[in-house]
Amino acid sequence: MFTLPRLRALRVPLARANSTLESLSSASSITSPPASSTPSDAAAPHDADSVSTLAPRHRTQGRKNLKYPAIRPSINVERPREWNPPVAPGAIPAYDQALAYIRADAAAVQVEADALRLSIEKGVVPTEDVEDAKKRLEVLEVMAQINLPEVRWKAANGMADMSQKVYRHLVEQRWRNEGALDLLMERLYQMHVIPDVLPVLQPTVDLRVVLPEGPPKDAVLRARAKRKTAPVEAGALFVNEQTRRPPKLYATVFHPEPRFYTLLMVDPDVPDEESQSFRTYLHWLQPNISLSATSAGLLPSIAHTPYVPPHPARGTPYHRYVLLLLPHADPTAKLSLPPGPLERDAFDVRKFVQDHALGTNGGGAFMWRAVWDLESSRIWREVIKKPEPRYGYPPKPDPYGTLKEAKRYV
Fold first, then answer.
1. Which Pfam families does the entry link to (predicted)?
2. Domains and CATH numbers, the chain
3. 92-134 pLDDT, tens per residue?
């Protein structure tokens, strides 16, 4: 037989969670607690505005006990910051001596660079040694500032002045030695972009792609949520909704003078039924893009062959979408292309590069992957405006097909 526990009477009056001190004090006056045995407690004044009349569980935590996460201030060219020593001067004498030694060495190298520059300008250096002297001068100008802590701090925090040689050197070494270029080349070779698209490719430009984040699974959030954009990793797999609009491209070049480049975006994985192989589709072409070390921001948009979103056909494996930013053989000459868009289907990248003297020992590259989804069918219907093809493996012949069709009993 089940027994119910006896309910205990509440000794503390009930009050709403959002009640004020006055309401709590008035509620406590309805059922007053028993008189205190000590005369000091009995003589204590009852003030509704005093927090001491509340029980400890009614008191707030207080601002001093609140913990706020440490957020690093945003540092960029629009909101610059200055380098500050990690310790105050005089706190660590060894650190102060190290800074003094670095600055003394930088000043000595700068004096040597100034002397060499003056000798070149006055013609003291022999004619056959002028080129070597200029190269030596470039090295000295970089060495004079490369060890200064404020220079390295600005280069690491996106505040590099790309008009100066030392910052161009630091930014380029960071791109080459800290994994960004290695990851790009790994994906280009691992996914056979080289040699399927081009036989040789040696990037010298840091080409970065920014795409919106993937759509949420919830239909309500998909329609209402604002999606953020962020740099993406080379070789990653994206849904076609993320690339419905042209991606934002950022290029960092390391030469001070302006040079012309041509941007290509191709898909080398379009099935070719006649040859039982694959052909290349041209998605985007922007010729004659002028870039230099001081040109920052998005790549300029040049209307020649407009952007067509990726649209993998149903039944095909993942498609590779390759971006190529190729330099011109003559960096000051523009390409002469027909005014209208080029033929997209069966586009020959190697022939285009050879005909227009584009270089592969330089420039930039990027690639990502995509597979068929519902957005791909929507692009075929709304953008391509052609019937969507569907691919698959041919049916296997059934060795017992004739026997199955024949009548068993005659």
1. PBP (PF01161)
2. 93-177 (no CATH), 196-384 (3.90.280.10)
3. 999 999 999 999 999 999 999 999 999 999 888 888 888 999 9
